[in-house]
Design brief:
CATH architecture of the largest domain: Roll
CATH superfamily of the largest domain: Pleckstrin-homology domain (PH domain)/Phosphotyrosine-binding domain (PTB)
CATH topology of the largest domain: PH-domain like
Number of helices: 1
Oligomer: single chain
Largest sheet: 7 strands, antiparallel
Radius of gyration: 23 Å
Strand content: over 45%
Distance between the termini: 45 Å
Number of strands: 11
Strand order of the largest sheet: 8-7-6-5-11-10-9
Shape: elongated
Helix content: under 10%
Structural class: mainly beta
């Protein structure tokens, strides 16, 4: 069942009459703006925003310790997603369905070291997880110090 939320806001000035309608149902949000000018011309603008929910399948006895929005820096591109730290692994999940092939996990026994790096050589927001196979998983993330401390406790 869909719970529908509707809000109508009207504003009238000497030259224009604006009516804004907000409609929300589950993960779809619609904003419809109508405005009439003094000359009688009506304009309509409609925005449709769809929100997607992210689900991660957890293993048995696995709990999420920390999660944050991040960008994974691959050799070829930067992919936005969520970095999820659990008591059993580090998991990166992309926000976009077309990039699901980038999703990956790092188990504690695969971690060799965790290092910092700066983006644009001056912004201290990079976290690099190096695996024992030599792969580098680089993330741009806030509070990298906290992330580093928590990851270091894992291995």
């Amino acid at each position: 069942m869909c719970v529908l939320y509707v809000k109508i806001v009207e504003k009238r000035t000497a030259t224009v009459h604006i009516r804004t309608v907000y409609i929300q149902c589950k993960n779809v949000y619609i904003i419809k703006i109508q405005y009439d000018t003094i000359s009688g011309t009506r304009y309509e603008i409609e925005y449709v925003i769809k929100f997607t929910t992210m689900t991660v399948k957890l293993y048995e006895n696995e709990t999420v310790l920390k999660a944050a929005n991040t960008s994974y820096c691959d050799n070829s591109a930067q992919v936005d997603g969520k970095l999820i730290l659990t008591n059993q692994r580090i998991y990166f999940k992309t926000m976009v369905d077309e990039k699901k092939h980038v999703d990956f996990e790092i188990l504690p026994n695969q971690i060799k070291e965790v290092m910092f790096f700066n983006t644009w050589k001056i912004f201290p927001n990079g976290l690099n997880v190096v695996t024992k196979e030599g792969a580098e998983k680089k993330f741009i993330i806030k509070n990298r110090d906290q992330w580093c401390l928590m990851i270091n406790k894992m291995y």
